Amino acid sequence: MLKGVGASAGIGIGNVLVLEDISLEYTPHEVTDTAAETTRFKDAVDRFIKNTEKQAKKLLETTGEKEARILEGHISMINDPYMQSEIEKQIASGTCAEEALENMCNMFIGVFSAADDDFTRQRAADVRDVKAGVLGELLGVKEIDLSEVPADTVLVTRELTPSMTAGIKKENIAGIITETGGKTSHSAILARALEIPAVLSVPDISEHFKNEDKVIVDGTAGNIILNPDKKTLAEYTAMRETFIAEKNALEVFRGKKTLNADGKEYELFCNIGKPEDAVKAVECDGEGVGLFRTEFLFMDRTSLPNEEEQFEAYKKAAIILKGKPLIIRTLDIGGDKEIEYLGLEKEENPFMGYRAIRYCIDNKELFKTQIRAILRASVYGDVRIMFPLVTCIDEVRQGKRIVEECKAELKLQGKGYNNDIKVGIMTETAAAAVIADLLAKECDFFSIGTNDLTGYTMSCDRGNDKVSYLYSHFQPAVLRMIEKIIKSANEQGIPVGMCGEAAADPMLIPILISFGLTEFSVSPVSTLKVRKEIAKWTKEKADEITAHVMSLKTQGEVAEYLKTQI
Ligand code: PEP
Ligand code: MG
Question: Could you give the angle at which helices 65-79 and 118-139 cross, rounded to 10 degrees?
Answer without folding.
Answer: 70
